[in-house]
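User:
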Amino acid sequence: MARAVALALGARPWARTKILVSSFDLSVLAVLRNLMPDQPLAMLYRKLPADWPAILSTLGASSLHLLHEQLTTDVLSQAQKHGFHTRVFTVNQPARME
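Assistant: Predicted structure:
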């Protein structure tokens, strides 16, 4: 999978500045990182592991993407401290978005 993504992105010179690749699969992102050292990456989590800052740092990821229910002020503070952008997914209730 990572090799196919690298081929597709490599054929588009603008991809490194316009596309952020995210996945739930750390091994896929690790292979992609080796193939494309400058490509922005994000790790997706439904359940955030305790060592997520180390995982993202080792991967060289620029962003943390997580299930909205996992976002806390502590997680956001840690992300900011480590320089990670943070995004949430699957917010289906308008009240939760506020």
